[in-house]
Amino acid sequence: MEITAIITALCLVLGSLLGITGGIGVYRLPDFFTRLHACGITDSACAFLILSGLMFQTGTSLETVKLLFILIFLLITSPTSTHALAKAALNSGETPLMEQQQTQQKREER
Amino acid sequence: MRQTLYLTTMLSGFWLLLSGHTDTFMLSCGLVSVLITVAIVQRMNIVDEGSQPLNLPVRIFGYWLWLAKEVVKSTWDVSLHIWSPRLNISPTVICIEASQKTPTGLMIFANSITLTPGTVCMNVDDNKMEIHALTLSAANDLMSGEMDRRVSKMEDNYA
């Protein structure tokens, strides 16, 4: 009883931290494609940690199965939608920021 | 035929687990909705090996474990980059050639790339993939081709 509560707490805190990291990443990173990587964190590791933390609380019941379904769907659909977003951006003429450009931009800002 | 049977079983199981009802009325409602869904899907003609891979090898579980390890590693990496005050990133676009032969294999590879933070698969053209990486080291990891090899090895046992 005690130990599952501790595991849940750990998973939830770690997951939330990763969620915040993803949000800050979306804010800090310079262009569309790099921001997708920040979203990638919340997509995979954050969702996994939060859902498995909740699964430790439900024990063996129908709710656990439902959480497992959500997890499986998320793990398949979120990369697919990220890919769709990236492809759509590429097709509509968004060009990825490159390293040289970035340093140039920084120099111009100074 | 095999696909239809499989779809029906999956949908019935899914309905049972999600609803949790066991009385006759609700069960017959579930049966009717499953049958209607199967009929619609049959009419739309969208069930094939690509949308419902039946022959996924058992070894995919081993691959998932390895993938989970990779996801943890790259999540740590990307988080460090996001939190570091200097934002030391080097966005890179690379083009790699995938060695998978089946559409399912390519799908697993592309989705694995996108699932690991730090790399996003932007475009797939036959077996050439355009990949955007947040840092040069993430791109180099992918260029070393370990993920490609593992997916292909799994695919050999497939079909």
Could you characterize the architecture of this molecule?
The complex is a heterodimer of chains A (110) and B (159). Chain A has 110 residues and is mainly alpha-helical. Chain A has one domain (2-109). Helix content of chain A is 86%, strand content 0%. The longest helix of chain A has 30 residues, at 62-91. The relative contact order of chain A is 0.13. Chain B is mainly α. Chain B has 2 domains: 2-44; 60-156, no CATH class. Chain B has 6 helices and 3 strands; from the N terminus they run αααβαββαα. Chain B has a 3-stranded antiparallel sheet with strand order 1-3-2. At the A-B interface, helix 1, helix 2 and helix 3 of A face helix 1, helix 3, helix 4 and strand 2 of B.
Secondary-structure element order of chain B, N to C = HHHEHEEHH
Average of the residue pLDDT scores of chain A: 85
Give the topology string of chain A: H per helix, E per strand.
HHHH
Task: Report the end-to-end length of chain A measured between terminal Cα atoms.
Answer: 57 Å
Helix vs. strand class of chain B: mainly alpha
How many strand units of chain B? 3
User: How much helix is in the residues of chain B?
Assistant: 55-70%
Q: What is the count of structural domains of chain B?
A: 2
- Placed side by side, the strands forming the largest sheet of chain B appear as 1-3-2
Calculate Rg of chain A over CA atoms: 18 Å
How many beta-strand elements of chain A? 0
Percentage of residues in helical conformation of chain A = over 70%
The best one-word shape of chain A is: elongated
Backbone structural class of chain A: mainly alpha
C-alpha termini separation of chain B: 17 Å
| Estimated share of beta-strand residues of chain B | 5-15%
Uncertain residue segments of chain A: none
Mean pLDDT of chain B: 84
Principal-axis shape of chain B: elongated
Query: What is the number of helices of chain A?
Result: 4
